[in-house]
Amino acid sequence: MKNLTDSFVYLGHWPSAGSFGFNTDILATNPINLSVVFGVLIFFGKGVLNDLLDNRKQRILNTIRNSEELREGAIQQLENARAHLRKVETEADQFRMNGYSEIEREKLNLINSTSRTLKQLENYKNETILFEQQRTVNKVRERVFQQALQGAIGTLNSCLNTELHLRTINANIGMFGTMKEITD
Predict the structure, then answer these.
(1) Which of 53, 1, 54, 3 is nearest to 28 (CA)?
(2) 147-167 per-residue burial string, b: 16 or more CB within 10 A, e: under 16
(3) Residue ranges per domain, the chain?
């Protein structure tokens, strides 16, 4: 510890100017050496340091300028994308509306077509029912006529004798003969 305090005490006592030598006291020579080194560095390194700082400043400014250009380009791309999005949304709305109207048209066409088909089927059904009714009525008439004819024949056969039968045939032949003369 005594060496430490001695070195500070000796700082005030410089050796005489005429002598040159090495001071082996590390604590006494270190601040002097450091101040000399810093002085030399500041004197000679000032230009290099200024150049380095100027280069760094230019790189930072260039980076800022590039960033601004990129930002402006990104903003422009964003605006273009938004415009494109609006255009696509408008087209999508138009397609949607056209699609809805087309669906409505197709729906109405399908309803009308189905309605016409149902009317035609209803007409066919009614015609078929009418035809079947007429056929059934004709069958019933035919049966009734056959039964009436058979009943009349049966009644005539039971009531007619041979003489009455011959007179009826002759009268009918006579009527056919006069009818033939009228038509000729």
Answers:
(1) 3
(2) eeeeeeeeeeeeeeeeeeeee
(3) 33-172
pLDDT digits (tens, 9 = 90+) for 32-69: 778 888 888 788 878 887 888 899 999 999 999 999 99
Q: Which two tokens stand for residue 104?
A: 């409505």
Cα(68)–Cα(74) distance, integer angstroms = 10
> End-to-end CA distance of the chain, in Å?
177
Q: What CA–CA distance (Å, rounded) separates 101 from 108?
A: 10
Distance CA 175, CA 179 (A): 6
Q: How far apart are CA 3 and CA 58, in angstroms?
A: 52
The model's pTM: 0.37
Residues in the chain: 184
Specify the amino acid at residue 150: Q
- How many CB atoms are closer than 10 A to CB 49? 12
Letter for the amino acid at 108? L
Non-local (6+) Cβ contacts of 27 within 8 A are: 3, 4, 7, 8
Instruction: For residue range 134-165, list pLDDT tens digits in order.
Output: 999 999 999 998 998 888 888 777 776 777 77
DSSP codes, 4-50: HHHHHHGGG-PPPTT-------HHHHHHHHHHHHHHHHHHHHHHHHH
